[in-house]
Amino acid sequence: MSNDSRSAASVRASSSEGIGGASGDGQSAITFTKMHGLGNDYVYVNCFEQALGSIETQTLAVAVSDRHRGIGSDGLILIRPPSDGSVADVRMEMYNADGSRGEMCGNGIRCVAKYAVDHGLVDSSDAESTEIRVQTDRGVLTLCAFRRDHVVEQVRVDMGPPILTPSDIPVAVSGDRCIRAELPVGDAVYRMTCVSMGNPHAVVFMESVADVDLSELGPLVERHSLFPNRVNLHIACVQSRTEATMRSWERGSGMTMACGTGACAVLVAGVLEDRLDRKALVHLPGGDLKIEWQESPQGEIGTVFMTGPAVEVFTGQWPI
Predict the structure, then answer these.
(1) 130-154 burial: b if 16+ Cβ within 10 Å, else e
(2) Is 161 a member of any domain?
(3) CB neighbour list of residue 120: distance below 8 Å, 6 or more residues apart
(4) Residues 76, 118: contact at Cβ < 8 Å?
(5) What is the pTM of this model?
(6) Domain contains 1
(7) Which of 6, 79, 176, 290 is the most core-located residue (most Cβ within 10 A)?
(8) Which residues are known to be catalytic?
(9) How does pLDDT run across 181-214, given as a tens digit for each residue?
């Protein structure tokens, strides 16, 4: 099966458990598209062309994400029409693999932009680059999709400014920033810097990303009492002022190949800890992202930009 940016391959998915409920419009299956950004994979449903009706989306997310009995993914993303009065072109509604709602996904939003441009949800005029506005739980974000041979391969996302106030992240620490704060886990105490990119992140810098068992530490930190809304955990190490490597435990999904908002958080945390410059290449298990935290001329918190690939893997039908 080809993994080209737009594969013609198609599969028929099935589930013995089912998803509960029905679409309400007589359809017997949901058309889906499997996409990924650096291996951070989601199932996408075009809600411009089909209604989910009474289908319980949280249950659907769990079913399709199952890597043994479902399609297999880190979650479900619905591509919906924007809300009334919104200036956006499309709206992204994200669910983690455990069915919980996610506020934002950097790799996911790049794939939303690719889908919208490649499948004609926005008027792109077949240009080499197309600007698209995506409504998220964090607000409307502006993206630029770059084509090669008429297919989107790279997307640059204006992620907006990072959220640094602890109560807004949220993380239960005092002060106006959470930089190198103590994170006690069992007998160990780690030093974390916390950032929100619309979703909460805790970044721990170490000499090597292999210094801890992330599969063991991740779930303990995700549900730690310091994080009222749970948290995404990233272990990072710095190779130079312009290069870092990271591994991620994502809230609601576990270990993933990549986390786009997490890569943004790692850069911001690296700047706050004076480890990284404001522009760096971040290496993730699934590949690389270019991250830049621009300085604001007014002295305010600047915007973070993320650039990386988006890939369409296959399309199929999920029975309901």
Answers:
(1) bbbbbbbebebbbbbbbbeeeebeb
(2) no
(3) none
(4) no
(5) 0.88
(6) no
(7) 79
(8) 105, 259
(9) 999 999 999 999 999 999 999 999 999 999 999 9
Dist CA 134 CA 277 (whole Å): 28
CATH number of the CATH domain containing 203: 3.10.310.10
List, as one string, the DSSP characters of 128-175: SEEEEEEEETTEEEEEEEEEETTEEEEEEEEEEPPB--GGGTT----S
Residue 5 lies in a domain: no
- Residue 150, amino acid: H
Q: Are strands 232-240 and 200-205 parallel, antiparallel or unpaired?
A: parallel
* 107 burial via Cβ count (<10 Å: 0-12, 13-18, 19+): buried
Let me know whether 131 and 268 are in one domain.
Answer: no
Domain coverage including residue 39: 10-155+310-319
Q: Are residues 136 and 216 in the same domain?
A: no
The pLDDT value recorded for residue 126 is 72
Average pLDDT over residues 215-219: 97
Is 56 in the same domain as 171?
no
- For the chain, how many structural domains are there in total? 2
Strand partners, 195: 201
